[in-house]
Specification:
The structure holds two protein chains of two kinds.
Chain A: H1 10-20, E1 27-29, H2 34-44, E2 51-53, E3 58-60, H3 74-77, E4 82-83, H4 86-94, E5 100-103, E6 107-108, E7 114-115, E8 118-119, E9 126-127, H5 134-140, E10 143-148, H6 173-177, E11 184-189, E12 192-196, E13 203-208, H7 214-219, E14 226-233, H8 239-248
Parallel strand pairs in A: 1-2, 1-5, 5-10, 10-11, 13-14
Antiparallel strand pairs in A: 2-3, 3-4, 6-7, 8-9, 11-12, 12-13
Chain B: H1 7-14, E1 20-23, H2 33-41, E2 47-53, H3 56-63, E3 67-74, E4 76-77, E5 81-82, H4 84-92, E6 99-102, H5 105-117, E7 121-124, H6 131-135, E8 140-143, E9 150-155, E10 161-169, E11 175-176, H7 184-190, E12 193-201, H8 204-208, E13 214-216, E14 223-226, H9 244-253, H10 257-269, H11 274-281, H12 283-288
Parallel strand pairs in B: 1-2, 1-10, 2-3, 3-6, 10-12, 12-14
Antiparallel strand pairs in B: 4-5, 7-9, 8-9, 10-11, 11-13
The chains are: A alpha/beta, B alpha/beta.
Chain lengths: 259, 304
């Protein structure tokens, strides 16, 4: 069967793209939801030596052997390399020992700042769940990757509240405020993949997912989006990648409903 | 002397109105849901809820009107996102307004670590440049006295009581827990009192057979409650798996105020106590949550 014939969901594509950001041997701070699957996929394919850290205190050097909904579920604990305290995990992060972290958010802006706190004016405030470990990963990881649903109301000129800093106001902002981590390396959305200009630190479109046009991405982005030429097409998941994703998410709990 | 008491007495004695309580300290596992439900039944008021990620436990306490203040990094439903009880309290003051002190997981952990260490604050480099730092008056940014680099100072936070769920404890409160422990050890050492709720009540020699496994020693513990299934629907490694359906049911029904009230009545108030809760769940449903396999650790030899 050729790759053209493969059917996959937006969620499965995002997991495959996220997994490719994990390099072999890296120490990865794995967030909730899709990143759990991305770690399992990377560890099972091109990054067999990657180490996964979870904020509850689990450290794994193997994918969980069964489907997990939360990082504290039984299969993520059984067979772990280390079960410790959050202090140890966050300490490794702050000490510069974590190569890559994954985070998500409700709002993002052109410099990769994320909001998971409050949306809207004070009289019509929407309260989001909060920072969790996302702010810590964004501040302290050597680099981080953001995974989000791409909608115009989420991709805004300036986020209402910064819980997880990207490049702040651009340029050398992170250095000025004293952040040790390197900032966002990529944004993976339901429509495409974005990278950041090395000088201005502004987000630019790097690839569109199969079937998505640049115009569609622009229509769902609330600022004048830059493109990093040439804008390519995101490689679709391979048959092997899909088989592994479906092994770890057999009922499509994370990858089929949510897209 | 045994510290073992019924859940009702432990909550009545150690969690008065206005108390600051830390719970849900291992994140999504070992959450003392039964204790939270008992506090709702006892109509506790004006509590301060402290914990990094409480799953729906904090949402239920807030929706029931027990909380006045929340110190947390994340309040919602881990499986589904938003916590509607929390949102209604913050956005609309229903059932009454609550004060929220926002943290990241790391700053919340460090606030407990500082208290556990008996120092006024611990410095960190997280949250620099964020609005959490800008708007949380208890977090201060100051230059490092050695290098001049920006630092965030996280002040110590001393809860009145830590409520912990563990796999096993002896009657003095010395306890074993396994799996990742989040901020549990710091929370226990930071708090003025500790209530330990255990799946199994074991003889003291079981704890002493593996002292490296001891999460909290008994001299820090005020009360012990023997309460199998006291963490349901959260998972307890080796005892039961997470009951995902409960979180989905609560998420759906708590979307409206009436639905939330009906859920709290059905699953907390009307069942009367934890035994009534388990009877309502029924043996078949509980049995299905039992581990399908056993995965024993290799024994360690403490011989000399």
């Amino acid at each position: 069967m050729g790759s053209e014939a493969l059917h996959y969901t937006p969620g499965e594509l995002m997991v495959a793209v996220a997994a490719r950001e994990i390099h072999d041997g890296e120490v990865v701070f794995v967030g909730m939801r899709l990143p759990i699957l991305a770690f399992c996929l990377a560890r099972s394919t091109h990054a067999p030596s990657a180490i996964g850290l979870f904020e509850n205190g689990v450290v794994r050097d193997s994918p969980a052997r069964d489907f997990v909904v939360t990082i504290s579920d039984g299969p993520n604990v059984a067979g772990a390399l280390w079960c410790t305290e959050m202090r140890d995990i966050m300490g490794l992060l702050q000490a510069g020992r974590v190569d890559l972290g994954f985070i998500g958010g409700a709002q993002i802006d052109r410099f990769g700042n994320l909001n998971t706190g409050y949306v809207g004016p004070p009289d019509r405030l929407t309260r989001l769940p909060g920072s969790g470990g996302g702010g810590d990963i964004a501040c302290l990881a050597r680099r981080h990757v953001i995974i989000m649903t791409h909608q115009r109301r989420r991709f805004v000129e300036r986020v209402d509240y910064v819980t997880s800093p990207g490049f702040g106001e651009g340029g050398d902002w992170r250095g000025r405020v004293g952040l040790p981590g390197g900032g966002p390396a990529a944004v993976i959305t339901t429509l495409g993949v974005f990278r950041f200009d090395p000088a201005t630190r502004e987000m630019a479109l790097a690839s569109t997912h199969p079937g998505v046009t640049v115009a569609q991405v622009r229509a769902q982005t609330g600022w004048s989006l830059a493109c990093a030429p040439p804008v390519t097409e995101t490689p679709a998941p391979t048959a092997e990648e899909l088989a592994v994703i479906r092994r770890f998410d057999p009922d499509g709990f994370w990858t089929r409903e949510r897209g | 002397m045994s510290k073992v008491v019924p859940l009702r007495d432990a909550m009545a004695r150690h969690v008065p109105d206005g108390a600051a309580i830390v719970l849900g300290t291992a994140l999504e596992a070992l959450i003392p849901f039964a204790a939270a439900h008992e506090l709702i039944r006892q109509r506790r008021r004006d509590l301060t809820l402290i914990g990094p990620i409480s799953d729906v436990c904090f949402d239920q306490l807030i929706a029931a009107g027990c909380a006045r203040r929340v110190v947390a990094s994340w309040v919602g439903n881990v499986q589904h996102g938003s916590g509607y009880g929390f949102r209604r309290a913050v956005e609309q003051g229903i059932p009454h307004p609550i004060d929220v002190e926002d943290h990241s997981n790391f700053t919340l952990a460090l606030s407990l670590e500082a208290a556990a260490l008996g120092v006024p604050y611990v410095p960190t480099r997280t949250l620099l440049g964020t609005d959490i730092l800008a708007r949380n008056a208890r977090l201060r940014q100051l230059p490092c006295p050695f290098t001049g680099q920006p630092l965030v100072l996280v002040p110590a936070l001393v809860p009145d009581v830590a409520i912990l769920h563990v796999q096993r404890a002896d009657a003095d409160g010395s306890c074993h827990a396994w799996g990742a422990s989040g901020v549990t050890a710091a929370a226990a050492k930071a708090s003025r009192a500790v209530v330990v709720i255990c799946e199994e009540l074991v003889p003291p020699e079981v704890i002493r057979s593996d002292p490296n496994r001891t999460l909290v020693p008994g001299f820090l513990v005020s009360a012990v409650v023997h309460l199998p299934w006291g963490a349901h629907p959260s998972p307890v490694q080796g005892h039961y798996n997470r009951d995902h359906a409960v979180y989905t049911d609560y998420h759906g029904r708590s979307a409206t105020l009436d639905g939330t009230r009906a859920w709290l009545h059905e699953w907390v108030v009307d069942v009367g106590d934890h035994a009534g809760y388990l009877a309502k769940l029924g043996p078949a449903r509980l049995g299905a949550l039992r581990p399908k396999t056993s995965q024993l650790a290799a024994p360690v030899d403490y011989g000399f």
